[in-house]
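Backbone shapes recur. Consider a single case.
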Amino acid sequence: MNHKVQEIVTEIEAVRQSIYDAVAELSQAQLDFKATPESWSITENLSHLNKVERGLPKLYTILLQKIEEAGLKPETEGSMLNSLDHAQLDVATQKFQAPERVLPQAGLTKAEVLAALKQSRQAILDAVAPAGEYDLSGVTWPHPALGDINFYQWVLFVGKHEKRHLGQMEEIKKAEGFPNS
């Protein structure tokens, strides 16, 4: 795995740990609380994150194959951590419409949703592990809201997206009527 991918993986793992920390002490009632009937609960936010993440390893494999076929040059130094800042993906108040395929599943227990998140994250890590010492910025794939983004940005998207939903979960905890336990 090259330097830029490792840096991004470190970042997305830190964000994931923040999510685990944010929900660790919450009861099922707190996880399932909805501030309004049309809003998502914390459990639904977590389910959505899992569904988004489950679809990415296949894309990463496709992009890595394209990179190998293109015979791209070795990686250069630098960082990609700020390459999606313009999209403000981690701003919790910015509204995006989730595609139907990644809408959350209701009724999951805390154990189920956390286990699913651990599985989907491991699949992400396994899919990016083969990223060699090549410049992975030369191959792109369209994102529904962002347009064409490169391999690095697709991995970084995971963390930015999770930061956004972490902010939403923190807002749910502050909502009127949020259960005490």
Remarks:
- The beta strands are 140-143, 147-150.
- The mean pLDDT is 90.
- Helices lie at 3-23, 28-32, 42-54, 56-70, 110-128, 151-174.
